[in-house]
Amino acid sequence: MRDKKVRLIGSLVPAAAASLAALLLSALPALGQDRVDETVTRPVVSEATSPLEPIAPVAQDGHRGEGFLRKPPGAGPFPAVVWIHGGLTTLPTERLKEYALHRPPPSRFLAAGYVVAVITYRSRDDDPQSTVSREDSVAAVDYLRQLPYVDPDSIVIYGCSGGGDLALEVAASTDVAAIVAEEPASMLFTGIFNREFPKQGERFSPRDAAPISADPERYYTAEYQKLTREKISRIRCPILIVQGDETSNLNRFNAQVLIPELRSAGTTLEVVTFPGEPHCFAFDHRGQATSPAVALKAVQAADAFFRRHLNTQPKPIDASLVENVPVN
Q1: Using CA atoms, how far apart are residues 241 and 209, in angstroms rounded to an integer?
Q2: Are 161 and 189 in contact, with CB atoms under 8 Å apart?
Q3: How far apart are CA 328 and CA 315, in angstroms?
Q4: Which of 63, 127, 254, 280 pairs with 188 at a CA distance of 20 to 30 A?
């Protein structure tokens, strides 16, 4: 198993960064893996204990979205986490269901005592600035607020890439307790990646944004600076950015544009870096390129961050109801 070092990048005050590092590292076992140098496991909670419930959050324009929800046993109140996948297009139902049931990140949060909602959204590959994906994501938060067993003041978001962009958009649109944005595709959030940008095919794909992240200074003009700063001014919740390889174009763009803008605005922001890890390594937890132990550390860091900002703390599901199996 590869030996990876975790880099914690704090806010502008070094003491605060050191404090966060201690808090995150002390809380790493919270999701049930005491030693990351052993075989990495994930918790399995049976559907008899926690049924998989289809949900259809209704957006402002009346569109019925799609997602799957699982809750710990009991009446609550529980904190809740919304998982938002990357890309620009709707995730097929079976893939959404598979992620909710079998992938390590949502399984770990469920076993730790969170209500878990795994959602998809309407595609925006015809226009990357279409608001429908954001509206569907906000609708999921509104749906959770109405559930009698969810504390409406303890809803958090975890999104990666395009889902990380949507986590930022949700935070700028409604109140949530905190968000974790894993390598957010912030060329979307800034407005630079839009329908006027050149594309290779009939519809946009993430690779079409490569020139933007390769040369941020060229594309981040005064027009997009104004748009970005207005959005950031509406964000009230704390943000944790999780990132892998710092040399990737997307992470360089965030380092040059998003992170400085968030800090300049006084946003409560922390950044945790896992050097060398591939894009969305913690969210996807797939592929030989990702170390299961490092992905586990990233998700544990997200949990530790959330707990610092939750009104209602998660309580682990009884160990007798949880089976731990090796991560593939």
Answers
A1: 20
A2: no
A3: 27
A4: 63
Q: 259, 271 in Cβ contact below 8 A? A: yes
- pLDDT band, residue 38 (cuts 50/70/90): low
Give the whole-angstrom CA distance, residue 89 versus residue 121. 7
Q: Which amino acid is at 102?
A: H
Q: What pTM value is reported for the model?
A: 0.89
The CA distances from residue 126 to 187, 195, 204, in Å, are: 16, 7, 6
Q: Which parts of the chain are beta strand (E)? A: 7-9, 41-45, 53-55, 67-70, 78-84, 115-119, 150-160, 178-182, 239-243, 269-273, 322-326
Asked if the structure places residue 320 within a domain, the reply is: no
> pLDDT tens for residues 93-104?
999 999 999 999
Q: Spell out the alpha helix ranges (H) of the chain.
A: 14-26, 93-102, 104-112, 132-145, 162-173, 186-189, 210-214, 216-219, 222-232, 249-253, 259-264, 281-284, 292-307
The pLDDT, as a whole number, for residue 289 is 54
**Within 10 A of 289 (CB to CB), how many other CB atoms are there?**
11
Rounded percentage of the chain residues whose pLDDT exceeds 70: 87
- On whether the CB atoms of residues 322 and 31 are closer than 8 A, the answer is no
**Residue 170 pairs with which residues in a beta bridge?**
none
Whether the predicted pLDDT of 223 surpasses 50: yes
User: Could you tell me if residue 327 is inside a domain?
Assistant: no
The helix/strand/coil state of 316 is: coil
Helix (H, G, I), strand (E, B) or coil at 328: coil
Task: Measure the CA–CA gap between 62 and 139, rounded to whole angstroms.
Answer: 10
Q: What is the CATH number of the domain that holds 100?
A: 3.40.50.1820
In a domain, 322, yes or no: no
The residue type at 228: T
Strand order in the sheet with 115-119: 7-9, 269-273, 239-243, 178-182, 150-160, 78-84, 115-119, 67-70, 53-55
H helix intervals, 75-130: 93-102, 104-112
Q: How far apart are CA 86 and CA 279, in angstroms?
A: 10
Name the domain count of the chain. Answer: 1
Q: Is residue 321 part of a domain?
A: no
Cβ atoms within 10 A of the Cβ of 82, count? 29
The larger pLDDT score, comparing residue 38 to residue 134, is at: 134
